[in-house]
Write a structure and sequence with these properties.
heterodimer, A: alpha/beta, about 40% helix, globular, B: alpha/beta, elongated
Chain lengths: ~270, ~270
């Protein structure tokens, strides 16, 4: 039996792209051939099933499993396209108090036996739901937008990752990766957004990927497909694929999205080189 | 004319009936540590106790005979107070508990410290009352006295009276070390705070708050490789980012206390 790596996708602020990132990374890992399970910890506000296009096949959810009302096998939803990708959805009718610490611990330890990767989609904030999602993680992906409020909240979450997780309590350090999402080159240049260097400097966490702001992401979530499956050639999908390879340990340089150069610019650049 | 901000912590005493027993408790503290109440700002908190003004008068007299000087009363409106009584106070924020110099004391009332209204979080710093306790244990108890979602200080190395923190101090974290210097190898994020009895050294960007010399040391200094702080304070005298000299922004800097002002200097 394999022993999975549990990755938590977290951020302080809402709306930064945690769920999109979870779906994209999980499906990219599955495409690489790993057995992957994505868990939606955002009890009360489930979204991951929507983005993964599984909302009409949800029968049992995380709360049912935590409470012992269903087995994990009953609750897992298999992806339509990839048969090694599963989803453990959240319940929309309950709230985060329905999750117990022991229940979550046993669910995670059971999933560890079946999968290579377990990706936990954390709810926003620093409340119980977020701490439960990160508690048993082996690694963390911190999702931040290039704006000050998002960066500040991520900093807070990193502090929690170093204080309130199982690894931290056992005296270890959780490996952390920074994912910058909704990056807009134009606005970074004019100073409306923080540059990636500034975000990395403030958070001092290694960068795993920079995902450009893209309409493709919205389009993909509307059709219920993770961006890495729906439009493999979009810049956002490429950024997620790269990030996934880095998560797997490959050492490749991070591509910072740039403006498309004009033909003339390309021409001159070519001459100079 | 200039107004200066200076912060103290006040001991808040909440008298509980029967007052004779409560005064006996105060006597016990004084017997154990005669200097405990001397020269300290002391506030009487009678909020919610519906104490009669005559009883309050008598209580103040009793405290007076024990040389406990009350500087203000919280929880009674100024109009009810008799002439000669300390003024009415309000708007204080609760800070962490003050150690009474014997570990066994849990006397109600004598252990809440409250900030004065004008004081920023500087006032949260603890007074130095028990220098014999092991530094590490003290530090732990101080950090845990923080807010509800407190976090332990990151890995730190205790040596003598100073601590070294080898990780960035994150937003929401508070490092409290009332006994000596704090050295941070890394950055102090905006929203984080370092409170030290001695000096503060930050080998990285100082983006949060740094409160040095909280135990009454004017000679404490703050050093950082990149000054972008929200607030700096030495011995209670503080300055917020808006009042800084803009030329030192993001530069290596030191801040020291001189003639009742904070002096900012570039380090090179």
């Amino acid at each position: 039996m394999s022993n999975a790596t549990v990755v938590v996708v977290t951020s302080g602020k809402g709306g930064v792209g945690k769920t999109t990132t979870t779906a994209a990374i999980a499906s990219a890992l599955a495409k690489e051939g790993y057995q992957v399970c994505a868990i939606d910890f955002d009890v009360g506000l489930r979204n991951l099933d929507l983005i993964m296009g599984a909302e009409r096949r949800v029968v049992f959810d995380l709360v049912n499993v935590v409470r012992g009302e269903a087995s994990i096998k009953q609750a897992l939803v298999r992806d339509k396209k990839l048969n090694n990708l599963y989803l453990l959805p959240a319940s929309q009718t309950r709230d985060k108090d329905a999750l117990t610490e022991e229940g979550v611990a046993s669910v995670i330890s059971e999933l560890r036996m079946y999968f290579d990767y377990v990706i936990c989609d954390s709810p926003a904030g620093i409340e119980r739901g977020a701490t439960l999602a990160m508690r048993h993680a082996d690694e963390a992906i911190i999702v931040s937008n290039p704006e000050v409020s998002s960066v500040r909240d991520c900093d807070r979450i990193i502090g929690l990752l170093d204080a309130k997780t199982k690894i931290a309590e056992d005296g270890g350090r959780m490996p952390k990766h920074l994912m910058i999402t909704r990056y807009d080159t134009e606005r970074a240049k004019t100073g409306d957004m923080l540059a990636t260097d500034d975000v990395v400097d403030i958070l001092s966490v290694p960068l795993i990927g920079v995902v450009p702001e893209s309409k493709d992401v919205l389009k993909a979530s509307n059709v219920g497909l993770p961006i890495t499956l729906s439009d493999e050639n979009s810049p956002a999908a490429k950024a997620y694929m790269e990030a996934t390879r880095r998560l797997l340990g490959e050492n490749i340089p991070v591509t910072i999205p740039e403006e498309k150069k004009s033909l003339l610019g390309k021409f001159f650049k070519g001459r100079a080189a | 004319m200039k107004f200066k901000g200076k912060s103290f912590i006040a001991i808040v005493l909440s008298p509980e009936p029967p007052f004779s027993d409560w005064l006996g408790e105060i006597d016990r503290i004084i017997a154990r540590s005669p200097g405990f109440f001397i020269d300290r700002p002391i506030i009487l908190d009678v909020r919610g106790s519906k104490i009669a003004i005559e009883d309050l008068e008598q209580l103040l007299e009793e405290l007076g005979t024990r040389s406990v000087r009350v500087m203000g009363i919280d929880g009674v409106s100024g109009t009810r107070l008799k002439p000669g009584m300390p003024p009415s106070f309000s708007g204080g924020r609760l800070a962490s508990d003050i150690d009474v110099p014997t570990p066994s004391t849990n006397s109600p009332g004598a252990e809440t410290a409250e900030t004065q209204a004008k004081a920023p979080k500087a006032a949260r710093a603890e007074e130095k009352t028990d220098t014999k306790a092991p530094t590490a244990a003290r530090k732990k108890s101080h950090t845990s006295a923080e807010s509800d979602d407190k976090q332990a200080a990151p890995a730190s190395i205790v040596s003598g009276s100073s601590i070294v923190i080898t990780e960035p101090v994150r937003s929401g974290q508070s490092i409290l070390h009332p006994d000596g210097d704090v050295t941070v190898i890394g950055s102090v994020s905006s929203g984080a705070e370092i409170i030290a009895g001695g000096s503060i050294h930050v080998y990285g960007a100082l983006r949060g708050r740094a409160l040095a010399g909280v135990a009454g040391k004017d000679c404490a200094r703050i050093f950082c490789s990149k000054l972008d702080a929200e607030l700096v304070s030495i011995n209670g005298l503080y300055k917020v980012a808006d009042d800084f000299d803009g030329t030192l922004r993001n530069a290596p800097a030191q801040i020291r206390f001189e003639n009742e002002t904070l002096v900012f200097e570039e380090l090179n």
